[in-house]
Amino acid sequence: MKRYLLNFIATIIIAVLLSQVLPWWSVMLAGLITGLLIPLKRSAVFFVPFLAVALFWMVYAYSLSQANDFILSKKIAELLPLNGNPYLLLLLTGIIGGIATGIAAVLGKQISILLKSSKS
């Protein structure tokens, strides 16, 4: 349990810091780094970073959208098949960021396994 929480918090902190200076894909670097340094087992390798970045992106998108009364979010939700619902757009945003980070974390785990096997 301790390792899951550590990975979750580290992923959020690294994602927030990297997103200040890098584009949207910086969350994938956060997942890759935590996948390398804080190894998890089985499906937790994907789902812990997924939840961390999904939560981060949804909260961040909500705070940005709330500043302009969801005007832009409603317009984008009209373009997508979301019936103009900005909250579904926020959910979709979190899911997309979470999937990208989860896949990067799995890659980080695979790289750490590859590095361990090449040492022996």
Integer-rounded radius of gyration: 16 Å
**What fraction strand?**
under 5%
**Count, helices:** 5
What is the 3D form? elongated
Q: Helicity range of the residues? A: over 70%
What is the averaged pLDDT score?
Answer: 94
Provide the structure class.
Answer: mainly alpha
Uncertain spans, ≥5 residues at pLDDT below 50?
Answer: none
Distance between the termini: 29 Å
How many individual β-strands? 0
For the biggest sheet, the summary is: none
H/E series, N to C?
HHHHH
Describe the structure.
The longest helix is centred in the C-terminal third of the chain and has 34 residues, at 86-119. The mean pLDDT is 94. With 120 residues, this protein is mainly α. The protein is built from five helices and no strands. 80% of the residues lie in helices and 0% in strands. The protein is elongated, with a radius of gyration of 16 Å.
What's the topology here?
Blueprint: H1 2-19, H2 26-37, H3 44-66, H4 71-79, H5 86-119
Concise account of the structure shown:
This protein has helices spanning 2-19, 26-37, 44-66, 71-79, 86-119.
Key descriptive features of the protein:
120 residues
